[in-house]
Amino acid sequence: MPPLHLAPAVADAMAARRPVVALESSVLAQGLPIPANREAATRMTEAVTRAGAVPAVSAVVRGVPAFGLEGEDLERFLRRDGVRKVSARDLAAAIVAGADGATTVAASVAMAALAGISVFATGGIGGVHRDPPFDESADLVELARSPVVVVCAGAKSILDLAATLERLETLGVPVVGYRTSRLPGFFTADSGLPLPARAESAAELAAIYRAHRSLGRPGALVVVQPPPAAFALPAELVDGAVARAVERARAAGVRGASSTPFLLAEVERETGGRSLAVNLALLESNAELAGTIAVELARG
């Protein structure tokens, strides 16, 4: 097993069985523009702490998988100095290359399972793309094999949400709405897609995860909650912005790993920056809910 570095605060919490929440670093190094990425890092970590848990940002730091990105290492990632995007499949190559790697949802979840961290928070998971539909995020398969609670605002609005929900069903990944019976649309509160289960409290979510694990199920429990009501955008605004962004991506020949940041940037431009405000708000909200779930799980 490769060396897994834990920052002192994370190592102490793990040793004492105190609650820890994993956070991704790709949203900081690739997903959000500068300086909003710095604001996101602060808001997410403070939200986890406020909930009573210890934040642990995942990354590959000079070839070492790590939880607790901080200090000059964090600054380097925020500046994007030679930081590559690392999915689960890319972890081994990044380790051997001694590279700095910002971890996606797939990589972060895989690392969390390895480290024994049970709760992870992000903005939105990846899924099935609208164009081309065979472009499917590695997040989905990793969710099917990594036993972690994943708190998010659904899949990103730029994706085919119905196809993504169906794919999660096929993979046997349970999706539970936190105080909602419909799948959130990331930037919007309601995609119109019904969810198979709903929970009203963090304690109930923790109980569902314990039951999930007691059945020997190998994968994640995906917990979805809408973005904060004060920031959620109207569905028609987002749908129009995404449709135009997809057309521009098609015309520019944007494919693969570069499509998500391209589409998110186009949607931000189309919404006059409102989508960025939603993104920051939901990252903070999801981190706080994840912290609350981690506290409940630590109670045993």
SSE layout:
Layout: E1 5-6, H1 8-15, E2 20-23, H2 26-31, H3 36-50, E3 54-61, E4 64-67, H4 71-79, E5 84-86, H5 91-97, E6 101-103, H6 105-115, E7 119-121, H7 138-143, E8 149-152, H8 161-170, E9 175-178, E10 197-199, H9 202-214, E11 221-224, H10 235-252, H11 259-270, H12 274-298
Parallel strand pairs: 1-4, 2-3, 2-7, 5-6, 7-8, 8-11, 9-10, 9-11
Antiparallel strand pairs: 3-4, 3-6
Helix pairs in contact: 3-12, 9-12, 10-11
Task: Give a short summary of the structure.
This protein has helices spanning 8-15, 26-31, 36-50, 71-79, 91-97, 105-115, 138-143, 161-170, 202-214, 235-252, 259-270, 274-298, and strands spanning 5-6, 20-23, 54-61, 64-67, 84-86, 101-103, 119-121, 149-152, 175-178, 197-199, 221-224. The protein is an alpha/beta fold and 300 residues long.
Q: How would you portray this structure in words?
A:
The chain has 300 residues and is α/β, with parallel strands linked by helices. 47% of the residues lie in helices and 14% in strands. It is built from 12 helices and 11 strands. It has helices at residues 8-15, 26-31, 36-50, 71-79, 91-97, 105-115, 138-143, 161-170, 202-214, 235-252, 259-270, 274-298, and strands at residues 5-6, 20-23, 54-61, 64-67, 84-86, 101-103, 119-121, 149-152, 175-178, 197-199, 221-224. Strands 1, 2, 3, 4, 5, 6, 7, 8, 9, 10 and 11 form an 11-stranded mixed sheet that branches. The mean pLDDT is 95.
